[in-house]
Amino acid sequence: MEAALRLFARHGFAAVSMRQIAAEVGVQAGALYNYIPDKQSLLFDLMRGHMEALLAARAERPKGGSALARLEDFTRFHIRYHLARPDAVFVSYMELRSLSPENFAVVEGLRRQYEDELESILRAGEAEGSLSAADPRIAAMAVIAMLTGVTTWYRAAGRLTVDQVEGIYWDMVRKSVSV
Amino acid sequence: MEAALRLFARHGFAAVSMRQIAAEVGVQAGALYNYIPDKQSLLFDLMRGHMEALLAARAERPKGGSALARLEDFTRFHIRYHLARPDAVFVSYMELRSLSPENFAVVEGLRRQYEDELESILRAGEAEGSLSAADPRIAAMAVIAMLTGVTTWYRAAGRLTVDQVEGIYWDMVRKSVSV
DNA sequence: TCTATATCTAAACGGTTGTTCAGATCAAAG
DNA sequence: CTTTGATCTGAACAACCGTTTAGATATAGA
């Protein structure tokens, strides 16, 4: 699974052969079929696993507090979690179209759950009067796109630590939905 | 080229065969080679063409004015331009890894030019005192990620017009880098 | 040590891949 | 009407695809 994830992230699902994955772990291609029914299931398991782990990790965060506090926690959590597993993020955002329709629907549903939490935080902030988003659904999509984009340029060896990145993005997110 | 762009956007570069592209335009696969040297060049021409057209269209916009005015123009331009050609945008952002190293470097350079303009607008705003971005480079990447993300959910048949989307995003962008 | 089970290899399956090429077909120019 | 050059077909090429399978090999329990 790790080898497949790495190769899918690097070259794309369609461009990676079962023989390449097998070679990466030192077996013949046929041996992989003792563990997975087919290539599509391999991709689906990786993506569903990533989304479920994301939701599970998110569920462990505190749920109470002000909308502003929850928004900050969401922002920092998202950046930290995504920067820690760039391959899984990359594959999960890029290979949606490689999923069969049924598998796509499942992953899409999980993603939707995640987006919905942010949307409800923004709605709560609106109700509180502490946040302002003209369209909470679109604001949620915009914030997530902004935050996830960090994985395209962040390099652990670069000039910024994860903490610093968190701070910069939180500053922007906070202001973007401020009253 | 149009057929290839459409298919690449839908299924991905690696997943589309020359025979599929040929069938889309009603010829045999071999006939395509009267116009392109190989499949890689086809992708490269599409991506380079998109980036060059983007830069050319951007270059026609007014360059003067306050940093705030230029930021608004950049924001609205980006959304309008990208929503008008979703396939080209999708392919150009998704298939970077399908490019040969030399071709990747070219496309990456063009993209960098585009990002640099936004970064310089933010720096000018900082100098003017009208904008505030803790790290202009990262703020530029964040804003572009947010704006480009619109192509993932926007549907022409949806509840919002392009003008409305522009307005919502400009509001968020403006606030995110406000003093 | 024998047996049962898990795991692997090596080969094969039918099908598809990007690309080439000889020859057919077409349109326009002389 | 003939010629030229562009364009296309249809077949072929070697290589690779995902997947299956028979049989070899390893592992662990009785």
From TrEMBL, chains A, B:
<dbReference type="InterPro" id="IPR050109">
    <property type="entry name" value="HTH-type_TetR-like_transc_reg"/>
</dbReference>
<dbReference type="InterPro" id="IPR041490">
    <property type="entry name" value="KstR2_TetR_C"/>
</dbReference>
<keyword id="KW-0238">DNA-binding</keyword>
<dbReference type="GO" id="GO:0003700">
    <property type="term" value="F:DNA-binding transcription factor activity"/>
</dbReference>
<feature type="domain" description="HTH tetR-type">
    <location>
        <begin position="1"/>
        <end position="54"/>
    </location>
</feature>
<dbReference type="Pfam" id="PF17932">
    <property type="entry name" value="TetR_C_24"/>
</dbReference>
<dbReference type="InterPro" id="IPR009057">
    <property type="entry name" value="Homeodomain-like_sf"/>
</dbReference>
<feature type="DNA-binding region" description="H-T-H motif">
    <location>
        <begin position="17"/>
        <end position="36"/>
    </location>
</feature>
<dbReference type="Pfam" id="PF00440">
    <property type="entry name" value="TetR_N"/>
</dbReference>
<protein>
    <submittedName>
        <fullName>Transcriptional regulator, TetR family</fullName>
    </submittedName>
</protein>
<dbReference type="InterPro" id="IPR036271">
    <property type="entry name" value="Tet_transcr_reg_TetR-rel_C_sf"/>
</dbReference>
<dbReference type="GO" id="GO:0000976">
    <property type="term" value="F:transcription cis-regulatory region binding"/>
</dbReference>
<dbReference type="InterPro" id="IPR001647">
    <property type="entry name" value="HTH_TetR"/>
</dbReference>
